[in-house]
Recover the amino acids of this structure.
């Protein structure tokens, strides 16, 4: 028996794919929309010997893969306690090993896009740098708040693995004073900063894509899961 066994038993039939038709429809709009924006800026320049087009595809592919993986792992857990049954108390560690390389890759690939597409945006550079710094401040503050107030395991979706997280009160400190969803609202501003520091039209379009797409995960996957985990009406 796992900690989530009682929750597994009350999952509605067919819940595993709940919200994923909407997820797919959003992707069918967001990916072409992002590519339409960035295509004019992709002129074949390279960074580390890789073309701007390939870096852009890596950004999109990494984001999509990470969020599909997030849906798969969260639903395997909430429906079947799949990782817990196979890895016991190491389940969250296994999920972290899968998750964090994608998380780190996203800003790094964004930087590669920006450097391969540098100076394509053409705005007033002092203003771009100023706005980039302004956006970077809440992003870094949010990352600090996650570590100090929220906790890495909880941020990984610990409530899909441990009942104890479901009994904890909402965090109202740090960046979470301003938004319950501070990780989605503010942390992703770091991608906008990268685009502005590089003066890159392609990177700016990809920042918009990634910031919009993370909310798709929230509304199509995470919010329905939280309604079940915390006993709300789904």
């Amino acid at each position: 028996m796992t900690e989530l066994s009682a929750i597994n038993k009350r999952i509605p039939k067919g819940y595993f794919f709940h919200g994923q038709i909407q997820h797919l429809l959003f992707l069918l709009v967001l990916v072409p929309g992002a590519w339409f924006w960035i295509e004019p800026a992709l002129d074949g320049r390279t960074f580390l010997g890789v073309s701007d087009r390939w870096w852009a595809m890596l950004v999109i592919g990494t984001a999509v893969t990470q969020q599909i993986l997030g849906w798969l792992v969260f639903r395997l857990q909430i429906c079947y306690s799949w990782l817990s049954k196979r890895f016991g108390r190491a389940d969250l560690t296994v999920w972290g090993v899968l998750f964090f390389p994608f998380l780190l890759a996203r800003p790094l690939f964004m930087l590669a896009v920006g450097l391969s597409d540098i100076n394509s945006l053409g705005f007033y550079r002092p203003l771009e740098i100023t706005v980039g710094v302004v956006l970077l401040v809440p992003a870094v503050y949010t990352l600090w708040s996650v570590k100090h107030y929220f906790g890495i395991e909880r941020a990984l979706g610990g409530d899909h693995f441990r009942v104890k997280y479901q009994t904890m009160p909402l965090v109202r400190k740090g960046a979470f004073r301003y938004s319950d969803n501070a990780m989605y609202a503010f942390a992703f501003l770091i991608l906008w900063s990268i685009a502005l520091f590089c003066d890159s039209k392609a990177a700016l379009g990809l920042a918009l894509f990634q910031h919009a797409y993370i909310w798709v995960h929230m509304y199509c996957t995470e919010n329905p899961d939280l309604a079940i985990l915390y006993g709300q009406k789904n």
Notes: DSSP finds ten helices and two strands in the chain.
